[in-house]
Amino acid sequence: MYLLFDLDRTLWDFEGNADITFAAMFDEYRLGELCHTDLPTFHAKYREINNVLWDMYRNGTMTKEVLYIQRFVLPLQHFGVTHCGKLAQELGDYYVLEGPKQTGLMPHTRELLDALSQRPHTLAVITNGFSEAQLPKMRTSHIDHYFRHFFLSEDLGYMKPDPRFFYETLRLLHARPDECLVIGDDYEVDIVGAHRAGIPQLFYNPAAIDISDRPFRPTYEVCDLLEIISIVDKL
């Protein structure tokens, strides 16, 4: 069985690590003085803009290079900072360099991976994140050795939830859909994408988000990563 794990917010604590990195960056570049605002307000505006830009990146209407800069240009401009291209580039470089140095993991990540490593399953990571960030994240947090394969959207040429991302993953693994299980926290990106490709899905839902109004139920759903062990033991 191939267990295909999303990385951010499934194994690596994206929000917690991002908060640490963003706070350090905010102080380093004295953004409070420059933007006449506080950290929570600036970070909230950044997240709002970044989410929109990532949606555009996923659907192919924005390039990685533009996203890289604009996710900082736009919040800076919102707070009255003009001619900020150079600063936005520096912030982007800082964020991508320093963020992966954080080591926070989602609860029970290491216990889960330790347990699965003792079982006859092949573990892989499937992620849309930037190549310069994703592998360093795994190395710094010492989870890279658990995984035999690493599938990145930049390498495959498609982004989740595009079914072609999953078809290409299957091709490279020489695996059938029923030999795989996609495990992720994002219903639209991980679960819907896998479903469209005919691959069973496991929705990691720690916040117990109500998905009763969604078009279909995932094959499995858990609130705690440790619940995955008993599920895969039955596969």
Strand ordering within the main sheet? 3-2-1-4-5-6
**Biggest sheet character:** 6 strands, parallel
Structural class: alpha/beta
Give the helices and strands as they follow along the chain. Answer: EHHHHHHEHEHHEHEEH
| Helix amount | 40-55%
Q: What percentage of amino acids are in beta strands?
A: 5-15%
**Overall pLDDT metric:** 96
What distance lies between the first and last C-alpha atoms, to the nearest angstrom? 8 Å
Shape: globular
Which quaternary structure do these chains form? single chain
Q: If you compute it from the alpha carbons, what radius of gyration comes out, rounded to the nearest whole angstrom?
A: 19 Å
Spans where pLDDT lies below 50 across 5 or more residues: none
Please count the beta strands (DSSP E, at least 2 residues each).
6
Helical stretch count? 11
Structure explained in plain terms:
This protein has 235 residues and is α/β, with parallel strands linked by helices. Helix content is 51%, strand content 11%. Helix 4 (64-78) crosses helix 5. The protein is globular. The mean pLDDT is 96.
Topology of this protein?
Elements: E1 2-5, H1 14-28, H2 31-35, H3 39-58, H4 64-78, H5 85-98, H6 109-117, E2 122-127, H7 131-140, E3 149-152, H8 153-156, H9 163-173, E4 180-184, H10 187-196, E5 201-204, E6 220-222, H11 227-233
Helix pairs in contact: 3-4, 4-5
